[in-house]
């Protein structure tokens, strides 16, 4: 009788209780929730994997002077040219572009809706377009097939405001008259720029502008005194021959025919003004810090002669030679900035503002990225005269010819034009400057 009771107990132990059933249900719900979370995470991972990175080529198209660039304009009046689009394919708008005959940089865009007496006119020289602009606009066109983003400059770098105007009114004539009144003379423009500099520029820029003005006034005073001396001695022909000439006579730096030493033949104070030496201390500071000159930053002529600064004991003489090296560097980099083959080497070179304005007025012309041949030769002559000062008037032509992107044969006529004599010592061609200064006679082409 005892054995059946034990079987019943075993059967009761094997059947789960209600509490056990509840626990199992909770575990199932938790497992299902974890499975749903895992499935959501896997779906997110699949979506991330589906996102692919696309490679896009960006191409910048330069402005072509023979073709007109895209023109961008907007209608401030709220007129929508695409609202009444003609389904028959007939153009609803007539767009015309006019260019000034005398001033080809002035453009006028006229948009004329068909069947209307109102024209929408926008210009790049009056109204909103005449205000100050501190950015450049470009138009981007993305080609999905080739995955190329073409960036094109827009015409006149202006977004034209298309104002409504009744056809036949005299608006354009009155507008041209107003724009003529807005044009300032050179003196008024300088005064206005000086006022804006004092109002909005930094203290450093204001000091540089004031120093530049004082240097200009000193130069004007010196030119007037020199002119008075020349007029006073006009009767004496000998005095006229030995007078200190200006750089306009022979496209050279200022020279003195009566000089008895090479140092006075081309006065250094007439090439580098007194106020400009304070902006030519970069080579001197670099030498003081014990750093080496890298050929990419400084011309090879300067790098090959930097050792001379270490052997000079006099501090003023050391600053003078370092300033000449710095001035040569800025001249060479200014030439590279305005040339096709050297613009990359001068891309990150910073020329002090006072020197950049001087170089721009002497060697460059407005609205041109290239130097005229005559002014480029003048810049080369300034560099060559300073190389004579740096080498005690016995200079090697090879390294400075490399810096000017010329060969030594092409550089020889420039030295001869300055009155130098070329001598060969130990298979090295040297340029010397004998005194008194004499210039070669101009060569005339023979007629055949």
Record keyword descriptors for this entry.
four-stranded antiparallel sheet; nucleus; DNA-directed RNA polymerase I subunit rpa49; 448 residues; transcription; DNA binding; 3 domains; 12 strands; alpha+beta; RNA_pol-assoc_fac_A49-like
Write the layout of secondary structure elements.
Elements: H1 2-14, H2 18-50, E1 57-60, E2 72-74, E3 93-99, E4 107-113, E5 118-123, E6 138-143, E7 148-153, E8 159-161, E9 163-166, H3 171-182, H4 186-200, H5 203-232, H6 237-242, H7 262-265, H8 268-271, H9 282-288, H10 300-303, H11 307-311, H12 315-337, H13 353-363, H14 373-390, E10 394-396, H15 398-403, H16 408-417, E11 421-425, E12 428-432
Parallel strand pairs: 1-7, 2-8
Antiparallel strand pairs: 3-4, 4-5, 5-9, 6-7, 10-12, 11-12
Helix pairs in contact: 12-14
What can be said about this structure in brief?
The protein is of the alpha+beta class and about 450 residues long.
């Amino acid at each position: 009788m005892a054995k059946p009771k034990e079987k019943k107990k075993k059967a009761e132990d094997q059947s789960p209780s209600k509490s056990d059933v509840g626990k199992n249900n909770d575990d199932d719900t938790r497992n299902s929730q974890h499975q749903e979370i895992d499935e959501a995470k896997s779906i997110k991972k699949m979506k991330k994997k589906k996102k692919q990175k696309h490679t896009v080529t960006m191409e910048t198209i330069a402005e072509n002077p023979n073709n007109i660039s895209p023109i961008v304009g907007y209608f401030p009046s709220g007129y929508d040219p695409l609202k009444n689009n003609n389904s028959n394919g007939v153009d609803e708008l007539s767009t015309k572009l006019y260019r000034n005959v005398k001033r080809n940089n002035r453009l006028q865009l006229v948009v004329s809706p068909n069947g209307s007496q109102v024209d929408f006119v926008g210009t790049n020289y009056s109204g909103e377009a005449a205000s100050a602009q501190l950015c450049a606009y470009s138009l981007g066109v993305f080609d999905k097939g080739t995955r190329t983003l073409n960036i094109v400059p827009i015409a006149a770098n202006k977004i034209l405001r298309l104002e409504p105007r009744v056809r036949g009114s005299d608006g354009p004539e009155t507008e041209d008259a107003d724009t003529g009144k807005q044009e300032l003379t050179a003196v008024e423009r300088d005064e206005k720029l000086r006022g804006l500099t004092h109002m909005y520029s930094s203290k450093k820029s204001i000091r540089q502008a004031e120093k530049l003005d004082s240097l200009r006034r000193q130069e004007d005073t010196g030119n007037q005194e020199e002119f008075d001396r020349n007029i006073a001695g006009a009767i004496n022909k000998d005095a006229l021959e030995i007078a200190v000439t200006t750089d306009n006579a022979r496209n050279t730096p200022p020279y003195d025919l009566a000089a008895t030493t090479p140092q006075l033949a081309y006065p250094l104070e007439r090439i580098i003004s007194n106020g400009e030496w304070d902006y030519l201390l970069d080579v001197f500071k670099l030498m003081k810090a014990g750093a080496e000159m890298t050929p990419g930053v400084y011309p090879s002529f300067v790098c090959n002669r930097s050792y001379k600064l270490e052997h000079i004991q006099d501090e003023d003489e050391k600053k003078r030679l370092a300033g000449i090296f710095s001035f040569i560097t800025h001249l060479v980099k200014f030439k590279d900035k305005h040339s096709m083959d050297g613009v990359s080497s001068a891309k990150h070179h910073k020329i002090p503002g006072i020197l950049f304005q001087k170089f721009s007025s002497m060697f460059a012309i407005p609205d041109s990225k290239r130097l005229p041949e005559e002014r480029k030769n003048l810049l080369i002559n300034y560099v060559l005269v300073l190389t004579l000062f740096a080498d005690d008037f016995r200079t090697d032509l090879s390294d400075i010819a490399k810096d000017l992107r010329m060969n030594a044969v092409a550089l020889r006529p420039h030295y001869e034009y300055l009155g130098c004599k070329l001598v060969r010592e130990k298979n090295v061609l040297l340029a010397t400057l004998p005194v008194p200064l004499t210039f070669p006679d101009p060569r005339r082409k023979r007629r055949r």
